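Retro notes (design track)

What went well: tokenization of the new backbones is finally stable.
What didn't: we kept losing track of which sequence belonged to which structure.
Fix going forward: every design gets posted as structure first, then sequence, in one message. First example under the new rule, 101 residues:
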């Protein structure tokens, strides 16, 4: 999922969502209608990728990776450490979360 703020700030193109739906748990307040998607390019260290993301206002983050991304690159999630492991061109990669500031 991609935040509306990020999509607007980076002037990313959007397309209509093929199956619009509503969410209630990502943003404080009322239900949020999800009716658009965007192709978001991102990099984390040497890992670079693009992901098609649903666009919605959210307070948690700007880009939220879900099960489709995890499936596509065969991610292993270690819940206790909240760390993600996968291979990139045969090289083991580890993504960790930032500690609260």
């Amino acid at each position: 999922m991609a935040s509306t703020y990020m999509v607007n700030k980076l002037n990313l193109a959007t397309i209509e969502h093929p199956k619009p739906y509503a969410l209630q748990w990502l943003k404080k307040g009322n239900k949020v209608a999800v009716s658009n998607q965007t192709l978001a390019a991102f990099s984390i260290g040497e890992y670079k990728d693009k992901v098609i993301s649903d666009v919605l206002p959210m307070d948690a983050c700007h880009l939220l990776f879900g099960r489709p991304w995890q499936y596509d690159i065969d991610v292993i999630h270690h819940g206790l450490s909240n760390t993600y492991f996968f291979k990139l061109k045969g090289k083991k990669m580890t993504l960790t979360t930032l500690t609260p500031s």
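Added context from the reviewer: Helices lie at 4-9, 67-72.
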